[in-house]
Amino acid sequence: MASRFAWLSQCKLLQLEALAHATGINTSGTKKIIADRLAEQLDVVKSLPGAKHDAPAPRRRHIVSIDMGIRNLAYCRIVLPPDWPSVREPSTPSPLLKEWERIGVVPKPGQVIAAPNDTQQTVKEAFEPSIYADHAYNLIVKLTAEPAPSHILIERQRFRNMGGSSVLEWTLRVNMFESMLYAVIHTLQKQGHLSQTSVWPVSPDKIGKFWIRGDDVRWTKEKKVKKHKVDIVSSWLHGRGGGEFTWSEEVEETVRAWRRAENRGRRNRPAKEPITHITLRKLDDLADCLLQGLAWIKWEENKMLILRDDIQSLETFTPLKTRVITNDEENFHDVLEMKKVNLTATKV
């Protein structure tokens, strides 16, 4: 472990887990494993532009966050402030939500689509790898159009559903499509494209534990966790982002469609809903991709706080204070004191 982060080895296991939660790092393993994992990630952040107060990032970063699916794939594009990854101050602009969509990668069977020579054809159910490879390429080309994203976050897929012994057929299809996305990106990078783009797999379990109170997410059914996530995003949309983000005019239509979907089924809904180009039936996919992108931003900012010897400020980040270690506040302050003591000893 680098000497700069030797203080991690003196932390208790629960202290290390609290820091790992705050930075999106895997919390499994022994004290040494978690401490080494934290030190490795912090060492990576140290080399990034903007890691020092006098070294702002050279260009604005664009994050593309993907919630995996085939007929219900959702993605968003978030534009970060010019000086990111510097930690946000009250006067710093919030991340800008530039794109936010849910798309069907594969048309539904029976749907009529345009075909060559100005003809039409009816879509048939097909799962050949060659067809999915074409869909994967087209999707990556769409999502990496200029300006190319600096980071692509892809939801990590499970191989089994809820710990069951069987593997569902749709799970295999989505896993295959996920692998193809990585293969397309890797191929483009080897050919000299997307040289400034990095790809990050993100565990959906970490997203839930980050945004939802620990007691609520630990033994909660998956359907209720999805509802929690949708409720969080809904509260932001009704409060113009709730300070977490703002959105552009391009996203306004999706936001209006989200609000109409919320009202659908309520007794006091308008007699006639306004006509729109977007109709939303599932909100959880859109919520997942947005929460994934914003959580990753928080994780990187928290790493920067630790790197700048400002671990006390971690307390000001709402997800860390109220949702991750609510039942372990005493342990959190122990982490702060441990950090301050060791930093002082190191600098002397």
Quick description:
Helices cover 46% and strands 12% of the residues. It has 11 helices and 8 strands.
Q: Give the strand order of the largest sheet, numbering strands 1, 2, ... along the chain.
A: 7-6-1-2-3-8
Approximate helicity band = 40-55%
Radius of gyration: 22 Å
H and E string: HHEEEEEHEHEHHHEHHHH
- Strand content range: 5-15%
* Largest beta-sheet characterization: 6 strands, mixed
What's the total count of β strands?
8
| Distance between the first and last residues' Cα | 20 Å
Low-confidence stretches: 267-277, 315-330, 336-348
Separate helix tally: 11
Give the overall silhouette: globular
Structural category: alpha/beta
Average pLDDT level: 76
How would you portray this structure in words?
By secondary structure, the protein is of the alpha/beta class. The protein has helices at residues 13-23, 31-46, 129-143, 169-190, 204-211, 214-218, 222-238, 249-263, 284-307, 318-324, 329-347; strands at 62-67, 73-79, 96-103, 112-115, 119-122, 151-155, 198-202, 246-247. The strands form two sheets. A six-stranded mixed beta sheet has the order 7-6-1-2-3-8, sandwiched between helices. The chain has a two-stranded antiparallel sheet with strand order 4-5. Helix 2 (31-46) packs across helix 9. The longest helix is centred in the last third of the chain and has 24 residues, at 284-307.
